[in-house]
# Entry
Amino acid sequence: MKHRQKSVADNPRPPRWGLVAVLSAALAPVLAVGVWGLAGAPKPPPPPATTGAADAGVTPTPPATGPATMADPAGFAAWAASALFDWDTATMNRADVAARVMAAADPGGDGEADGLASDVDGYLPDQATWAALRRYATRQTLTIDHMAVPDGWAAATTQAQPGQLLPGTLAYTVTGTRHRQGTWNGQPETYQAPVAFTMFIACQPAFPTCHLLRLSMPGQPLN
# Structure
């Protein structure tokens, strides 16, 4: 029996490197996807003399199931931004936040999920910092001031080769304020910092609902 060689038409999904190639060619060095340390994030106060007990007994919050019903690009983008930035160390583990975001990743085996996992890892405090923040009951929320498809996305899609981007791929740039609240020596403490980043999503006709593909480095959005 002869085996027919697969053609491009047999696999309409673009290769794993498709989106990264577009970003690298059209947007670098403005956008660099990948791991980002916690540079510029607020440093927690030194831990108290007694440690360990505060880390016990935390019940992880299960990942949200909201994105399964989100087909509207703007609504999904707002959800994804909140899923990434809204967390409470008293009730959530670091892995819970990552899992909540990754629940909306590209479900295809040849998608961008591995790269997105690295992107998300760079947005979250590392494990040691998370444990320190938990000792002070730190919680974080995001206020979105502006969210829109950036003008630069048109140039990026124009430069993309056929098949490099999934149909329905969009970029959304988010600007806003990150708020952190906690307790230090029995007194409430707050911290605010500006936030700017770009997320890349794919919606219809590629998928029935929207999925998160990649994130820019924090503070380096596409304008």
